[in-house]
């Protein structure tokens, strides 16, 4: 066989092989860390996000979900994301206050009257301003998902008025607004990562905690808590985060695919969370928890105390941002 013909065959073989190599090189695999158990609405939404991203990218972008704080709690995840050692994380928005103080506005008690108001604010311009502030911290915010309205549990007594909280050691998320609120009500706020809460309740290191119904059920707090009060005192969102280092390594088409998958999963995840928060209440009652709702009068007394706390903490969040946030919330209410 002559040499020119041999070189031609070799070149043809390489040309046929290169597209396959190029396609393979474009495939990426990522880790997504979540603090809650796999059957909780957050990790379930993360699985939907992974499916949408895989489908939308033709199998090129693949995400594996690690639930139950397998890769670390929320604070640890925030340390790993900027370096790109974890590419995605689903964290509670209160955890972000330590990085961007304006996220504290989400923790203001009794500010939302409905999930419709929540969605309008978080998906609107004010919510997007919050997400944009994360880029300077090495993070990309891909949207707000739902944890839900939080309710109180404890092992001591029913909470029928805010004075009933006096002296109780209540676990809160690691946000200064939460601590200020519960300390103001006479409780002893105990900030703690969620993966440590069950053991602390079981050992009576703390008396109670506060979370949406879905997480009270999936975290099995009913096994170590007797009383559940439907206080709905603070709404909490998840934030789907991505390492900016990883984001910058993607091309424009891949970023569009990521945004689209996150948006698709957002609505589905919120639906899962709202269904779970509704349905799991019956399970908690059946398990033996004593459940009480606040009367209208006592709820208003909680609201009145919340106003005092909002005034106290607004300056530490950013008084100008809090004012703009509340103005937009009132505008939305007036438009409906």
Calculate the mean pLDDT score and round it.
92
Computed over alpha carbons, the radius of gyration is 23 Å
Unreliable segments of 5+ consecutive residues: 3-25
Largest sheet: 6 strands, mixed
Helix content: 40-55%
Per CATH, which architecture?
3-Layer(aba) Sandwich
Give the SSE string: HEHEHEHHEEEHEHEHEEHHEHH
Our count of domains comes out at 1
E-strand count: 11
Spatial arrangement of strands, main beta sheet: 7-6-8-5-9-11
> What percentage of amino acids are in beta strands?
15-25%
Quaternary structure of the protein? single chain
Tell me the CATH superfamily: Bacterial extracellular solute-binding protein, family 7
Question: For this structure, what is the CATH class?
Answer: Alpha Beta
Q: Which structural class is indicated by helix and strand composition?
A: alpha/beta
SSE diagram, text form:
Elements: H1 3-26, E1 28-34, H2 41-56, E2 61-66, H3 74-80, E3 88-92, H4 115-123, H5 125-132, E4 139-149, E5 151-154, E6 169-172, H6 176-184, E7 188-191, H7 197-202, E8 208-211, H8 213-218, E9 227-230, E10 235-243, H9 244-248, H10 252-286, E11 290-293, H11 296-317, H12 319-335
Parallel strand pairs: 1-2, 1-3, 6-7, 6-8, 9-11
Antiparallel strand pairs: 3-10, 4-10, 5-8, 5-9
Helix pairs in contact: 2-10, 6-11, 11-12
What distinguishing features does this structure have?
disordered N terminus; 11 strands; D-Maltodextrin-Binding Protein, domain 2; 336 residues; six-stranded mixed sheet; 49% helix; single chain
């Amino acid at each position: 066989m002559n040499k020119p013909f041999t070189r031609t065959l070799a070149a043809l073989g390489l040309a046929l092989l290169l597209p396959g190599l190029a396609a393979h090189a474009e495939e990426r695999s990522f880790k997504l860390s979540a603090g809650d158990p796999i059957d909780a609405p957050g990790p379930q939404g993360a699985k939907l996000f992974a499916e949408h991203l895989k489908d939308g990218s033709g199998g090129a972008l693949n995400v594996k979900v690690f639930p139950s704080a397998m890769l670390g709690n929320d604070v640890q995840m925030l340390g790993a994301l900027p370096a790109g050692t974890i590419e995605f994380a689903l964290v509670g928005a209160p955890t972000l206050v330590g990085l961007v103080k304006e996220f504290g506005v989400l923790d203001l008690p009794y500010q939302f009257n409905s999930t419709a108001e929540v969605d309008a604010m978080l998906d609107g311009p004010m919510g997007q301003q919050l997400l944009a502030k994360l880029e300077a911290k090495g993070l990309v915010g891909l949207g707000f998902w739902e944890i839900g309205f939080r309710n109180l549990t404890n092992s001591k007594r029913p909470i029928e008025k805010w004075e009933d909280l006096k002296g109780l050691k209540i676990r809160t998320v690691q946000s200064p607004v939460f601590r200020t609120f519960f300390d103001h009500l006479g409780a002893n706020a105990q900030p703690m990562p969620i993966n440590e809460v069950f053991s602390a309740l079981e050992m009576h290191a703390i008396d109670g905690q506060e979370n949406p119904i879905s997480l009270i059920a999936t975290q099995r707090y009913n096994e170590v808590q007797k009383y559940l009060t439907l206080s709905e005192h603070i709404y909490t969102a998840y934030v789907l985060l991505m390492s900016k280092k990883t984001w910058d390594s993607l091309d424009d088409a891949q970023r569009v695919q990521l945004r689209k998958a996150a948006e698709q999963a957002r609505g589905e995840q919120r639906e899962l969370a709202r269904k779970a928060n509704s349905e799991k209440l019956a399970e908690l009652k059946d398990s033996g928890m004593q459940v009480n709702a606040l009367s209208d009068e006592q709820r208003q007394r909680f609201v009145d105390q919340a106003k005092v706390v909002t005034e106290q903490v607004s300056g530490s969040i950013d008084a100008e941002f809090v004012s703009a946030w509340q103005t937009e919330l009132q505008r939305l209410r007036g438009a409906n």
